[in-house]
Structures are given as structure tokens and as C-alpha cells.
From TrEMBL:
Coiled coil: 53-80
Taxonomic source organism: Ancylobacter tetraedralis
Organism taxonomic ancestry: Bacteria, Pseudomonadati, Pseudomonadota, Alphaproteobacteria, Hyphomicrobiales
UniProt cross-references to Pfam families, sorted A to Z: BMFP
Listed name of the protein: BMFP domain-containing protein YqiC
UniProt keyword list: Coiled coil
Keyword Coiled coil (UniProt): yes
Superkingdom to which the source organism belongs: Bacteria
Amino acid sequence: MTQTTSRIFDDFARLMNDAAGVATGVRREAENVMRAQAERVLRELDVVTREEFETVKELAATAREENERLEARIAALEARLNPPDSLG
């Protein structure tokens, strides 16, 4: 009887191990399907990627800095063309 019981436990352990492997495979497949579905939805919504967002953010910061530099240059040139004592 001990051999039979041992064999039953071995078979049960093997069955549980196989079931765990199948469950892991199903989980991975479900994750892949969900990821693909999410990517498809995001593409359809025309959502930008993080990389694209960061690139545009850098471009905007650079443009803002250039704009501020040009505003200061224009103000300096206007001050040279219209000195304060020539207004009176």
C-alpha cells in the first residue's frame, strides 16, 4: 500500500507541476494578447509615445529659450533706436 500511495502522490505532484506550467503559459499568452490589444487601441487613438512626447518637450523648451533670447535682443535694439532722453 505504501508503494501505491507513494505512486499516487508522485502522479499528483506531476499533475500539479504540469498544471502550473500550463497556467504560466496561459498567463503569458493573456498578457501578450492584452498588450497587443492596448497597443492597437492607443494607435487608433493617435496617442504619442513617451519618446515622441519627450522629443517635442525638448524642442518646445529650446524654442522657448530662443524666443526669450530674441525678445531680449529686440528690446536692446529698440532701446538703442529710441533712447529715453529723446522722447521729450
